[in-house]
Amino acid sequence: MKVIPSEGRAVRDPELRDLLPAEGRDVPRTDYWLRRLRDGDVVEAPEAADGK
Question: What pTM was computed for the model?
Answer without folding.
Answer: 0.84
